[in-house]
Structures are given as C-alpha cells and as structure tokens.
Amino acid sequence: MSSTYGNKVKISIFGQSHSEAIGVTIDGLPAGFAIDMAELQRFMNRRAPGQSRYTTPRKEADRPEFLSGLVGNVTCGAPLAAIIRNTNTRSGDYDNIRDIPRPGHADFTAHVKYNGYEDVSGGGHFSGRLTAPLCVAGGIIKQILAADGITVEASVAEIGGNAEEPFAAVESAAARGDSVGGIISCTITGLPPGIGDPMFDGLENRIAQAVFGIPAVKGIEFGRGFEAAGLCGSENNDEFYYDGGQVKTRTNNHGGILGGISSGMPVTFRVAVKPTPSISIEQRSISYAKGEDAVLKVKGRHDPCIVPRAVPCVEAAAAIAVYDLMK
Amino acid sequence: MSSTYGNKVKISIFGQSHSEAIGVTIDGLPAGFAIDMAELQRFMNRRAPGQSRYTTPRKEADRPEFLSGLVGNVTCGAPLAAIIRNTNTRSGDYDNIRDIPRPGHADFTAHVKYNGYEDVSGGGHFSGRLTAPLCVAGGIIKQILAADGITVEASVAEIGGNAEEPFAAVESAAARGDSVGGIISCTITGLPPGIGDPMFDGLENRIAQAVFGIPAVKGIEFGRGFEAAGLCGSENNDEFYYDGGQVKTRTNNHGGILGGISSGMPVTFRVAVKPTPSISIEQRSISYAKGEDAVLKVKGRHDPCIVPRAVPCVEAAAAIAVYDLMK
Amino acid sequence: MSSTYGNKVKISIFGQSHSEAIGVTIDGLPAGFAIDMAELQRFMNRRAPGQSRYTTPRKEADRPEFLSGLVGNVTCGAPLAAIIRNTNTRSGDYDNIRDIPRPGHADFTAHVKYNGYEDVSGGGHFSGRLTAPLCVAGGIIKQILAADGITVEASVAEIGGNAEEPFAAVESAAARGDSVGGIISCTITGLPPGIGDPMFDGLENRIAQAVFGIPAVKGIEFGRGFEAAGLCGSENNDEFYYDGGQVKTRTNNHGGILGGISSGMPVTFRVAVKPTPSISIEQRSISYAKGEDAVLKVKGRHDPCIVPRAVPCVEAAAAIAVYDLMK
Amino acid sequence: MSSTYGNKVKISIFGQSHSEAIGVTIDGLPAGFAIDMAELQRFMNRRAPGQSRYTTPRKEADRPEFLSGLVGNVTCGAPLAAIIRNTNTRSGDYDNIRDIPRPGHADFTAHVKYNGYEDVSGGGHFSGRLTAPLCVAGGIIKQILAADGITVEASVAEIGGNAEEPFAAVESAAARGDSVGGIISCTITGLPPGIGDPMFDGLENRIAQAVFGIPAVKGIEFGRGFEAAGLCGSENNDEFYYDGGQVKTRTNNHGGILGGISSGMPVTFRVAVKPTPSISIEQRSISYAKGEDAVLKVKGRHDPCIVPRAVPCVEAAAAIAVYDLMK
Question: For residue B61, what pLDDT is reported?
Fold first, then answer.
C-alpha cells in the first residue's frame, strides 16, 4: 500500500524514474466525459522542465498514452490507464548513489525499507518524475470539476523567502550550484457548501494526505493557518451574512472549511516546498559498502528550484482529493 | 465515511457532545497486550478540563468503560470498544444555535451537509468532546508503541504568538471573553528507520490526515516545515554520518522523514491550532428562520484556550497514524 | 481488520459472547431517516432464540440501546452506535474449552491466531451472538431500502436435505443430541438496474463477502448457481424482452445479476448453513495442556438447528452489501 | 471503485477487450523477489485459448510487458505494472451488440450503468479477456506463496454435469453451436493455521470476493459446502487429533477454514461456472434503438466451454486473496 489514493475514485500511480514507463490507473471516473486532450497537454506542460530558464533543461515529452478507459476521448466507465514512456532508462549516471545516499533524498530510507533492492536509478519510485502521472489524473479531474464550475488554481507565493521577486533567489542559487525552496498557494472556487466529511475525511485531512504525496512538500496550512495560532477568536472567527440568498462570511480566515466541510467560501491553502535536495555542491554522506563516512558530489544538471513545476502538481493533488469527497 | 481511520488498525469514533455516550472501536490490536489502566487514565486526564485555571471548569469524568476486546485488562484479539457516558445530555443551552450558526464552528457547514437534521446540541459530532475517544484509542496505542521503545510526546510551543510565556495571552483573552490559539510541537523518538510508505501513505500524509481530525487544527509542518521553504538546499539538506553502526544525520531539518519513510532520526512536527471559536463577545451571524442577518451571543462558560488540552490529542492522533503504518 | 465492512457505509461490529456488551457502529447513514423502532425490534426478534420449540430456549432480550447518531429516532448524520448488554457474562461454563477445542468451532483457529489470548467464553468474538449487532445494522438499512421500494426477504429452503418438511429433521436431531444444517434462499426485489461495480465490487462479490460473515455459512450461489454449471448456454441464457417500457428477462437463471451489476430482475441467491457444531454427543478432540488427544462433551443446552435464526441474518448481510453499493 | 482488490496488496486491473492494452498494477509486493518469468509464462499459457480443441482457436500471445516495479526480474518495492497489448482492437464485429444486448452477457447492465457510454467492443471491461491481467498478478503471487511452501491448485471437477468424462459434453455442445458450464475445484496446501480474520475478512469472505471477479462464476462452496447443509453435526464436525506435534482433523469437511481462519488442513473449495453466454444459436433480445423485441445471432467463433481456461484464473484469484490476508 502506498501509491494508491482515494475511497470512491481510486488512483494508482506506478513507475520509477528510469523504468520502462510511468503511469496511472483511475478507477471510478464517470462514464461519458469527453476529455479535452489539448487542454490536458497544456496542463502537463506546466510541470514539464524547460518552461523557464530556472528549471532543468533536460527535455521530456510527457505525452500520456491512453491504454484503456476511453472510447475515442470519452470515458466509458472502465478504469482509465495512461502511461508515459521513459526515454532515458537505466542510465549509469546514478551508480554512485547505490552506495552513497544523497542527503535530503529518499535514497537511505528506501534502502532500509526495501533491503537494498530499491531501484536507485534517478531516485526510483521517489523521483519527482512520478508527479507526471499524478498530473495526468489531476488534469482530467480538474476538467471534470471545471464542468461543474469548480476551479483549482495554484501559484508561486514566494521562493527563498522572497514574495515580491520570487525568481531572484533562483538565479543566485543556481549560480552557486545550490537550490532554493518556496511556498505555493492554492485556491479552489465554486465548491458548493457541504463537501467533506467530519473527523478523518474532512477536506483538510484529505487534501493534506494528497498534497504530501508530492516530493519535497513539508508543510500545509489552510486559511490563515499558522498565523491563526497567534490570533484571538474575535479576530479569527469569520462572521456569516446573507449575500442575496447565499450565506457567505465577511472574511475567510477559515479558508472555506469548517469542521472539515466546505462553507461555500473559496478553499485556500498554502504548501511549503523544501529546496531541491539535488545540488552540485559537495556534501558529506556515508558509504554502505565501506561502512564509513564518505563525500558525495551529485553529478548532472539539476533543477535549482522545483517550486514552479510543483504548482500544477498541487492543483492535481487538490483536485483529486476534492473530487473523491464529492462523488 | 468520515470518522473511521486506518488501513491495518481500524479506529471508528462515534458520539455527539450530548448523545447518550461517545466512544470508539479499535479493530486490529494485537492479542495479549496488557493495558495499564491507571496510565491510560492519567493520559485521559491530560485532556480533561479543569487541569489549570485557564481551561473550562466544567467537570467531566471521562472514564472509559470497556465493553469488549479485553479479558481482564488484556487484549484478546477481538475489536475493542470503549464508551464514555455523557452526563450532560440534551441540554437546552444550545437552542439558539439551531437557528443562528456560531462563527468559526461547524454549525453552518453541518447544517448544509445534513439538511437540518444535524445534532446541534453542543456542536454534535463536531464537538471537541469527540477527542476523548480519540485519546482512549491513542492512549492505548501509545502504550503499545512504548513497549517497543517508541515515545510520542507533544507540548505547547506557543500561545497567541508568545513562545516564552505562552499562558500570559490566555489570561488576557479570558478577561475579555475572548479566546486565543497556539502551536503544538510533537516529537516521536525510537521509531526505527523504514516505517512509512511512498506517495500517499507516507508518515507525513498519514500523520496529517489523523491530526487534522482534531477540531481547530489548521496547519501542520514537518521538520523545518515552512521555514525550509526559505532555505537553500545546502542549508536544509541533512548530511548522513555513522554513529557507531547506526546511520544518523548531523541536523534534523527533515524531521525524521524522507520520501514519507522514517530515517531513524526523531520525527518532529508542529501543529497550528486556531483560537477557540466559542467566545462571549457578541458576533454577527445569520438566522436561518428569518433568512436575514442576526446577532449571536454564545452562552455559557467557554475554554479561552484549548491548546493545552489539544496536546494529548496530537499525541493520540500521531500514535495511531504511526502504529497503523508499522503493523 | 476483520469485523469492519463497507466502502461507503462503514459497519464495525464488536463484542464477545460474554463481554460487557456487543454492538455496532454505522458510519455513513443518511441524515434525516426516522427509524421505526418497533419494526426494528420485530426484526431483531426473528433471530432471537425461543421463537420455536426447535431453537435454544435460553432467554435473551436483545434490545439495542442507541448511544449516538440519533436525535430522537431520526438519524443526524453522525455515526450511529448501538449496543446490547450481555446479561450472562464470564460464565464458568466454558472452562473446558480453554483446554479442549470444540470440533467445528473456531476455538482452535482462534487459539493459534491470538496465541492463547482469545476470549474462549461462549466462543468469544466468533459466537453466533455477534449476529445480533449485524441485525441491528441490517434491520436499519432494510428500512432505508424499503423506503426506496427495495425488499430483502429470506426464508428456510430446506433443513437436513428436506425441503418439504424442513422442520422434521430438527426434531429427530434434537432427540439424539445432534444438530442439523440447511439452506436459506433470499430474494431482493425492487433493485433498479445498474447497481454494482465490475470485477471485485459486483453484487455477487460483495453479498458473498457479507454473508460469509455469518458463522456456519459454507456456500453461496446466485440464480441457478451450481445447477447452471450443468446446463447449456441455450438453456441458461435469459432472453430479454420489453414489458411496457421496462426491460425484463423471460427467465431469471442469472439471479438478477450480470457482470456483477443488477439487471432489474429479482436478485436471488441461496446460502448453505452447516449443522450447528455444538452437539451433546461426545466428540474426540485434543488437550493443549496435555499435548495429547482428549474427549469432549459440550455442556449446556444447544440449538439443534440455527437455520431459522440465520434467516434474518442473511437478510441483514445482503441489505448491508446492497446499500453500500447503492450509495 | 470496482476493479481494485486488496487491503495490504492492492491489485488494480484495467483494460477493455479491444482497448490499446489490458493490464494490472500491484502495489505492496515485497522487495527482492525474483520472478521466474518462464514459470509465469507457463501459467499464463494455461488460460490462453487454443490449448485444446475445445477452446476458442483465436490466437492470443498474452505476453505481459513489465513497465515498472522491477530491476531486471527482481521486485524493487515500487508498484509493479504489467500490460498486454491488444492486437485486435476496435473491430467492427460487435456493431450489432451496441443495439441488441446479448443474453447472459453484461451488455445490458453495463448499458444502464454507463448510460450508453460503455465500450461494447468484445464485451469491453466485462470481457473474459480481463482475466489475463488477473493471471499476471495471481501468477506472481503464486510464486511468492510457493516460496513459502504454499500451493494453490485447481482443476476441472465436472463439465455439463459430467464428472467422469468432463470433455464429452463440450464436443456435443460445440457441434450444436451451444456452450456448456462446469465446476472447478481448488485446493490450497501448506497454509499455516491462523491465517484470516473474523467476520468480514475471513478466508471464505475474501476468496469469494476475489473468485466472483471471474466472469461466469455463479457459486462457491467451501469444504463440504452445500452438501454439509444436509448433514448432522456429528457427521460434519471434524475431530481434532495430534499428528506428531501438529494438530490435524480426521476429516476435512470444514475445508481448512473455521471461523474464517485457516486450521492448517488443506483449504478446499468448489466454484460453479455458468455456460459461456456466447452461442451461435439465434436468441431473442431487444433493440434499444427500436424500443422493441429483436432477434440476435452472435457472430464469430466462440469458446464452447471456458471452464478449462477458468482454472488458472481461480488459482490466481485465490492466491491473491490468501496472500493479502497473510501480509
């Protein structure tokens, strides 16, 4: 169990960075929905590298190939399966991580968990590459939600602590062979009130469970979040009022969620993304083979900041979580 | 679906603030574990009101009555069920919230979700009172973990933004009939490396899903969390070294979790708790019956700060999440 | 995991034959449904002993006490919990089964599974007594289905191989201190076409999973079942026709299910119930303590045929399975 | 939800008869298991057509292509995905079933469930072809079980009611353009006592849930099954004895399962398979388009008896169910 999400819509993600293919199965989509393939590709392109000079220039096509679940481009009720072929498989570039785990990566924890049988190549199943099939699933579900007037939109809030010129920190880090983290904010609009279940299946619980599936995410907060912890009730409570026949709140500190259930106000949350652990700077680590401390220099070119590419992934994860609760 | 948690150990919580009883069933405990009932009661007492002058003085016994799953105090493999009788049932104190939803509470969202059939009394199933059965389950599981050398310990990190004298803010808020939020930090020690599954069933995903089950929680961050978003990779990466035969990291910015899997370092996380929405100060809201805006004054005495009482609840939720992944 | 059923409606059953209480939690009932308590009690009475001279005369009240999930007798959306107190707890009657497992019972398998910590008293969690909370859940759900025009009705088809005078075999077995098994047939009417999911969540899969939860059930067949295995396709296929605007089949060998999905024809199935393993006749077994073969004489009065009492249990299990797929 | 099975090992099956590919993902396999690919192919071949003159001569390769989860042929802990390309896609042979549902098939029920958007080609997701990926998953898991000394073996017990010369009935049916059903018996040996959970997750419940996932299965019975319903307790109870240090039963009417839990005796069960619904004989049905009764002649060559090809599928389903309970 691990790479499967959802109670009513089951998403199962598979693949390793350098396996034959990566992909996803989605069991529980409604029959009769026409997927806009061009729109889906535009969504996929948002997480592709090479979108800006700050992201890794390695070329990836990331065009999903649909194996089942469709007649033409229309869902038929059967589980949908889509794969993306890995063109760069079993490269020798990662030979040294087999012995020396990279700081900040899952190399060491996977090594312990899988008794040395883990696929180390490119980070294996823990690679950020696995967010591509997440985006296939999320991109389709975003379209289904949009047909009901529900939008899920995320954007970069700050990078390296800088919210005004977020990309400034990227250039400076890249120049040093270093990397930098950031914060993504996300807003869901059009969600009717009454979505979400109490206790463990509330919107917060389930969005958090999905969003932490994106590598490098280390925190999530809804509405005012951590800031609310410093407020008084009289400041943080959002008063209700009628706007026509509709109940709204005058402020939205609660981020559109009360008791795990949507209030009809926009759902808002923020996600903390740690700096990419792959850096060119030499780091200290260990050698399993020698049983002693070692020094590691990660080869290849690395993305100095994955925050922009993580933005559509946050949308995808949130869309999946919300849709699973709506069905 | 909602108040059930766990893949391998199924926790099912039931009850409303003023129903006959609240309780929990736990399906999947190991047979042959002797529960230390005195220790469990001490744990329960930590969330009881009246522990300090800052918490609500309403007297509650909160002594779990065990209905099944035990022979004496030893688990027998069958599902364990425990209930706590509510002594204060169906009070008339809450008549006005049937019509006027309290800001910051789940009154309105429950009203929409359950079409007006929700139990409004004392907040119904959304009451903080439901954390009592959570603590019964968590308290037992903490003992099982402790027998394996794993401890789960939380404490108040700050209240009202004040980390040095956290309780100062409570007195001032209480005097104004207001309330105040805070931050709880939690540390899990003794967890062996290799616990947790990739993607959606990692430690972060599953602890977050459980902890957001505590009312008033609005954010969670692991390790350096949101702070890491402002760091460079070279600052945030934790370098490995051998300490005797054991692999450790020189720093613990990753909070003991890499790729969703425990590294063997202490698991650390922080939880944002919003200020108690119940305040004595008059607030604006709406009247369903009149279909117009209304003014609400919440009656009764209220806890000006639930943060201290939420501390054992965080431990309970985290213990349940970790144990479910360990089985 | 074990005593929990359902994807959309979660049923969690707890208790042992002689624990303080047995009970059930139901998470996922619709809000606003008024339970007819008298009707529920009549349903419960159908599985109670003492209904006929053929069933065990031990007196049990089996009146569920509702702890949560209701306001009055109306569901409020929160998980419903109901318990039945055991009046006959921790009796000494079962001391010998602690050492000598009863043939045909779960004594031995529970002993291995729970390392000797199982509750042996009255069969513990494996007792037929646990079908009482199953009937509480099933009885409520039968009412919800009935409100939609769906009925679930089972009856005794044969006992001891005798379908014409099924009760004749019971008297004869009872006189010898022996017991006898039988077959129950069940029909679900009013189920609209299109209910059930393909492959592993079809009506057959899910009804079977629920019905095998009743102790002593050893077989299930849908429609013509095992008989169909001896037929030709031209005999077994059910031809479609229009009856007014409605599609029907001229015969119902398929038992109302094609591809796991309801066809709109009555769902029909039959359940094989083995003879009650408790008999007064001396049987050979083993002694754990002595590590050698032993002889067992089961004490007390026993039900020579549980088939009539299992009839409402089959209805309950089927109702739960169908409702979970309909939500 | 539908084509996903398992609590600890998640099997997700996808594909339609004529989609680009069919396949399976398996999440939860142990890392470090070397799959014997030749053995797996031999297992796959057992369900392939053309094995005997009684099965459909249509040529299918059914060689799984592994996309992920392996390094070489060794599992790496990441989800395994395997696909089989469909060479015969989107054929026009099935145009008439779009309008006229075939008796005994899921055409009509799928039509209702998916509002006319179902993939009718070759039966879509309801085709027996989907048992190929089931056999990929089951074939791998059979190898894992075999490494622990557990074997799962099924065989044809009878066809068309004939147990002595089961294949006689096939020839006669084939000559008439008709088909015939049969019974498969299955035995699991080497399963240690104590496997399976009480109530809803017992071996019977979970094997039944898996086996009914094979199209055309209409009944299942464990041990003496329906026959036991005609016996007395003194005949049906299996007495325990010590065979060396091991506890055995003198007979095995219980089919190796008591209270849902394995007893250490061989697990035995029988499965009823209805006659293939595809026959060449003209049948009455309906036309959706005309809204009136119609006559259907199913084109193409059809398998007069799928029972032999269903044998490995029963093994696969049982292996998956048992393994999920063992983990």
Answer: 62
